[in-house]
Amino acid sequence: MILHNNKQMTYEKALRRAAFTLMEILVVVAIIVALAGVGGFFLIGQLNQSKGDVAKLQCKELAKACETFYVRYGQMPSSLGDLTAAPNGMTPILKDQKAIIDPWNNPYQMQMGPTGPIVFTTEPGTGRTFSSAD
């Protein structure tokens, strides 16, 4: 008759079951990939919405810069490029040329409205327009 120690048998079972199987690992990886995909989808949507919010704020700031140009030089700028290059060697209203570029790397547009300058841009792909008049 062979006597077995119950503690010894439990330890041997634990040693045999100390690792995960390949199937368990694949299931966990598949769940993580699915969650990352869903999270990435919502992250991209938020990024596009935030670009629109930035464009709207920058349109309003550029319209105010046009009004500042009028107060300082007595005339409206003929284009937004005039805001970065002041006449007669004076200090420009905007120091950086990047200030007149929208979040999609397109230049902002300007037109004169009934109450003053209107600065606007259009989101590529969707065609949504953001302007200082909104």
Would you kindly provide a written description of the structure presented here, covering whatever features stand out?
The chain is mostly helical and 134 residues long. It has a single domain, classed as Glycoprotein, Type 4 Pilin. 47% of the residues lie in helices and 11% in strands. The chain has 2 helices and 3 strands, in the order ααβββ. The chain has helices spanning 6-16, 22-73, and strands at 109-113, 116-122, 129-131. The chain has a 3-stranded antiparallel β-sheet. Strand 2 (116-122) and strand 3 (129-131) form a beta hairpin. The longest helix is centred in the middle third of the chain and has 52 residues, at 22-73.
Brief rundown of the structure:
This protein has 134 residues and is mainly α. The chain has helices at 6-16, 22-73, and strands at residues 109-113, 116-122, 129-131.
Write the layout of secondary structure elements.
Blueprint: H1 6-16, H2 22-73, E1 109-113, E2 116-122, E3 129-131
Antiparallel strand pairs: 1-2, 2-3
List keywords for this structure.
single chain; 134 residues; mainly alpha; 3-stranded antiparallel beta sheet; rod-shaped
CATH superfamily: Glycoprotein, Type 4 Pilin
SSE series: HHEEE
Shape: rod-shaped
Question: What structural class do you assign from the helix and strand content?
Answer: mainly alpha
DSSP summary: helix tally: 2
Q: What's the CATH topology name? A: Glycoprotein, Type 4 Pilin
Q: Indicate the CATH architecture.
A: 2-Layer Sandwich
Main pleated-sheet profile:
3 strands, antiparallel
- In angstroms, what is the radius of gyration? 31 Å
Provide the low-confidence segments as ranges.
Answer: none
Task: Give the total of domains.
Answer: 1
Largest beta sheet: strand ordering: 1-2-3
Helix content: 40-55%
Which CATH top level class fits? Alpha Beta
